[in-house]
Amino acid sequence: MKLLLDQNLSHRLVDSLNDLFPESIHVKDVNLERSTDSVVWDYAKENNYIIVSKDSDFHQRSFFHGPPPKVIWINKGNCSTETILTILRTQFDSIEIFSKSKSSFLVLE
């Protein structure tokens, strides 16, 4: 499972999640931190990434376009990077099941 972390998440998460999601990147790693959602969406689609974001725009886009790419929406509001890390680590099994499903969207809280 390859995650593409959106600009609203810390780039430091990539290293912290490397043991579970070794091919994951942050939009900053591929110079997409200032790109539109459409550009990020297309990059994820073309490169087989699951988008992880706190932005509801990707949630809406996933309903309109469907997969690929798949979207994980972290619906947690203003919280620390450590909280996001904990959510992604503790929900690994759910994310793995989601990655193999036909679903386009997963909400984590």
Helix percentage:
40-55%
* Number of extended strands: 5
Structural class, from secondary structure content? alpha/beta
Output mean pLDDT. 95
Principal-axes shape call: globular
Order of helices and strands: EHEHEHEHHE
Largest sheet: 5 strands, parallel
Unreliable residue runs: none
Total domain modules: 1
- Alpha carbon gyration radius: 12 Å
DSSP helical segment count:
5
Spatial strand sequence of the major β-sheet: 2-1-3-4-5
Which percent band covers the strand fraction? 15-25%
- Termini, distance in Å? 20 Å
Description:
The chain has one domain. The protein has a five-stranded parallel sheet with strand order 2-1-3-4-5, sandwiched between helices. The protein contains five helices and five strands. It is of the alpha/beta class and 109 residues long. It has helices at residues 13-16, 37-47, 56-65, 81-90, 92-100, and strands at residues 3-5, 25-26, 50-53, 71-74, 105-108. The protein is globular, with a radius of gyration of 12 Å. Helix content is 40%, strand content 16%.
